[in-house]
Design brief:
Layout lengths: L7 E3 L5 E9 L5 E8 L2 H17 L12 H12 L5 H19 L9 H13 L5 H21 L24 H12 L4 H12 L3 H5 L6 E2 L4 E4 L2 E6 L9 E6 L8 E4 L2 H10 L18 H15 L6 H14 L4 H8 L4 H8 L4 H9 L7
Antiparallel strand pairs: 1-2, 2-3, 4-5, 5-8, 6-7
Length: 372
Amino acid sequence: MPRRGENIFKRKDGRWEARYIKKYDVSGKAIYGYCYGKTYTEAKEKVTDLKVQMILNHAPATVKSKRKVSYYCDKWLDQHKTAIKPSTQSKYAMILDRYIKPRMGNCHPSALSTQIIENFKAELLKDYGLSAKTVRDILMVLKLVLTFIRKDMPGAISEIEIIYPKVPKQEMRVLTTEEQKILVDYLNEEMDLCKFGIYLALTTGLRIGELCALHWSDISLSYRTVTVSATLQRVKNFNDANGRKTILYFGSPKSDSSSRTIPLTDRIVMLCEQFMPDDVDTFVLTGTTDFMEPRTLQYRFQHYMKICALEGVHFHTLRHTFATRCVEVGFETKSLSEVLGHASTTITLNRYVHSSMDLKRENMNKLSAAGF
């Protein structure tokens, strides 16, 4: 019989055997190693020395906890929820619940390896059919969880290299000048508040959540500006007391630079004068104290696109179209970046500016002045 709390036994051959946990397998089951001695004391000294050496070397076998990856996923998200926006928390929770925990949640941290992560990545790309961008986001969340585990249990995880899939550059849909005219003509036809809001987004680059959260008090006719200070999003409901899976959340814009003031064109100012109600505390899209949520606006927008026979157009296409038109008319890049609410001009140029062939040809023709 071993002494209480120890795995040291006397064998039939007279030797003493001391067991210790070398590591855990993928399922979290302990894998043992063995030390032998002629006496109980010798076996205990050997296993104690080995455990001390393992601690000094930060070997995975020093991990005593049987907690699995799923536990640390939940603990990591819970500890960081006060430091991130509900929309970000919702995104992280979706990634953990849908991809990471079902595939890796039952693994013990010490069983993870570069190869296991590579297999996980391949499964996401091939079996799940996810895009490289989505897989990259999933692996970035997984890396944050692994970093959290290392801090909580030093030595629990061996060095793991996460190789992110290459994300191909994808050209966003941008309305041509002809398509833009079709849309504008339709919006001007029997314009209501919803159509006005879409036209406002087209001429300012507002995001859909920013537009849905916009009040008439955010528009200044005297200064001819619109101030963006809030956004409306539908996020996961973490306090599911009423059985609702999602809730609408009013919060600050996407980033600090997204809080901004945008000058308005003459046409927009004229429309604001036409539609602005007496009560400026109402929402722009409804003219009342009831808001229009992004999902409803998306439905209406797609209905409009169908009427206009414009294919492959999403609400965010308006933002890309606005940025592209600004560049085409010679908009100063720094000013455009601030109007769009970007932290740097690099984001503006790399993600939101789509040069047309006509503009490229016009710029190439300028080379004639240099003798080409």
